[in-house]
Hints:
This protein is α/β, with parallel strands linked by helices. The chain has three helices and four strands; from the N terminus they run E-E-H-E-H-E-H. Strands 1-2-3-4 form a four-stranded mixed sheet, with helices on one face. The chain is globular. The two termini are 25 Å apart.
Amino acid sequence: MGTERLAVEFEREEGRVRLRVSGRLEQATAALLEGVLRSLRDDPAPVTVDLTDVDHIDSRGLGVLLEAEANARERRVSIEVVGVRESLRSRRSPLEE
């Protein structure tokens, strides 16, 4: 394939960290977001992961988000995922659309 791309923009504002993610969050790209989230494990600041510009998430990408949420809960730190497109939430097959 070779066309998989993911970008993660990091912004710290008013004691919060915002990660703006864009592209495809999948097997070939998830390690980037996973690395950024791991680097924040010792940071007490609440984290917002903005997925507004993510157009595809596979099981690997979802696993990264779930792992980050579990880790944050363990450390009693807030992590919030926002901007999930309705098309990514749908349980219908793309063939049904």
